[in-house]
Amino acid sequence: MKATGIVRRIDDLGRVVIPKEIRRTMRIREGEPLEIFVDRDGEVILKKYSPLGQLNEFAEEYVDSLHEVTGYIACVLDRDVVVAVAGAPDKKFLDKPVSQAAEEVMDKQETVIIEDPGAHSFCEGCLEDDEDCKFSVQVLAPVISLEGKSIGAVVLSSQELDDTMGDLEVKLANTAAGFLARQMED
């Protein structure tokens, strides 16, 4: 663990304020849920809660199926990181932060097709010259919870320059996103 040098007191209602700098760095938004863990040494650990992260095994199986059916790279993102990937090296994408473009799709709650050869549209942290991270076309479909909040996205991507995506890929991504959202209800 890394010390921040920041000390906060617990108020009379048992609350602790997380400093703005830490919230910004950790991308913690107002109203966002946090998981609380206690380790053997008595340390309290706060971790961002990811509803889609709870479906990790299920999400992996789903993207495997999407990849097998479409031949495209398939991913599931939560609000912060890539939680499942098929058709591409796991170490390149898994647990990588999501991009600004993916965040915008989740915020707008609309499915989009991005046609931009060489784009790094759904995750950050790839090197500019890394061919595994460059895509010619992508579909991003937000996963919307029962409460109407966007909790992640399903992504279909291609690295082939002559590939196009249309209604079929949009429907597949939307179906996957809807199915994952329904799994959150159970």
Automatic annotation (TrEMBL):
PROSITE patterns reported in the protein's UniProt record: SPOVT_ABRB (PS51740)
Record-level GO BP terms: sporulation resulting in formation of a cellular spore
Annotated GO MF terms: DNA binding; identical protein binding
InterPro entries per record: B_subtilis_Trans_State_Reg, GAF-like_dom_sf, SpoVT, SpoVT-AbrB_dom, SpoVT-AbrB_sf
Coiled coil: none
Residue span(s) of domain SpoVT-AbrB: 5-51
Entry keyword set: Activator, DNA-binding, Repressor, Sporulation, Transcription, Transcription regulation
Any single Pfam family the record assigns to this protein: MazE_antitoxin
Keyword Repressor: yes
Protein's recorded name: Transcriptional regulator, AbrB family
Natural source organism: Acetohalobium arabaticum (strain ATCC 49924 / DSM 5501 / Z-7288)
Lineage: Bacteria, Bacillati, Bacillota, Clostridia, Halanaerobiales
